[in-house]
Design brief:
By secondary structure, the protein is α/β, with parallel strands linked by helices. It is built from five helices and 14 strands. The chain has a seven-stranded mixed β-sheet. Strands 7-8-9-10-11-12-13 form a seven-stranded mixed β-sheet, with helices on one face. Strand 5, helix 3 and strand 6 form a beta-alpha-beta unit. It binds zinc ion (2 copies).
């Protein structure tokens, strides 16, 4: 399974070239995109033809995780009018896009929007498990792995993506030993501002150790936090490899 970081930004940043949360997973010809935040569409389209995506899976209804669905919709409508893309996200996602454009049916013209619920589903050769996480009224974290041909679920190492998450323990049921943990670290080395419903480095480090993660990829750090201090705050609690990723970062997830 190949991971391309399309966007790693938080809701706002002073880093030129940064783009909002978006992570592309590919397995042979199959692909799935986790989130599609602000500015991510251009990098996505420079990486693969967005019309070929198996699905876009949206973690929660904050625009820094879904707003470039507008660009994807326009791209399909005007450049690829015979293609549609499956979008799986929390209830109400299509209504928000339609309202933004003040146009009923705006989403449905090019996107097949399905309601995300807890449980396991398939996108091509990917198996995706979704669990609710503390953040918004309907926020999710995901585990993505290669589906087994026989259909036995979730037996291979995979990628666990936190989405935005206010309680690291919510991800314990998702992660398995040997998984790669792609986690938000909005508040850098910490502490998290009370009520913010995000993670910091110590929480991510403890999580990685608890679940036996193979390695940690940190993302979604807010501006103003020191990157090295953030990485060190995870390393202080987790023995494995820790990196802070940026758009353009690519790696292979063993499976
Ligand atoms: Zn966010
Ligand atoms: Zn959020």
């Amino acid at each position: 399974m190949h991971l391309d970081v399309i966007g790693a930004g938080p809701a706002y940043t002073d880093r030129p070239g940064a783009s909002g949360a978006s992570y592309l997973l590919r397995l042979g010809d199959a692909s799935v995109l986790l989130d599609i935040g602000q500015g991510s569409f251009a990098r996505l389209a420079a990486t693969i033809d967005p019309a070929t995506l198996g699905a876009v899976v949206v973690s929660h209804l904050h625009p820094d995780h879904f707003i470039d669905l507008v660009a994807l919709r326009h791209y399909l409508r005007w450049e690829q009018p015979r293609r549609r893309v499956r979008v799986i996200g929390p209830a109400g996602l299509d209504g928000r896009l339609d309202a933004l454009h003040d146009e009923p049916g705006f989403s449905a013209a090019a996107l097949d929007v399905e309601t995300l619920t807890e449980g396991t589903f398939r996108v091509g050769s990917f198996e995706i498990q979704a669990v609710r996480v503390t953040h918004t009224a309907s926020g999710f974290g995901f585990r993505v792995s290669e589906a087994t041909p026989g259909g036995e679920p979730l037996t291979r190492p995979g990628l666990v993506y936190s989405g935005d998450c206010g309680r690291a323990e919510d991800l314990d049921v998702l992660a398995r030993p040997g998984d790669t943990l792609l986690s938000e670290v909005s508040f850098g080395p910490g502490p998290v501002v009370p009520g913010a419903e995000h993670l910091d480095g110590p929480a991510v480090g403890d999580l990685a150790t608890r679940v036996g993660a193979a390695r940690v990829l940190l993302t979604h750090i807010q501006m103003g936090y020191d990157r090295e201090a953030t990485i060190e705050s995870v390393r202080a609690r987790f023995d494995g490899p820790v990196e802070l990723v940026d758009p353009g970062y690519a790696t292979t997830i063993p499976g």
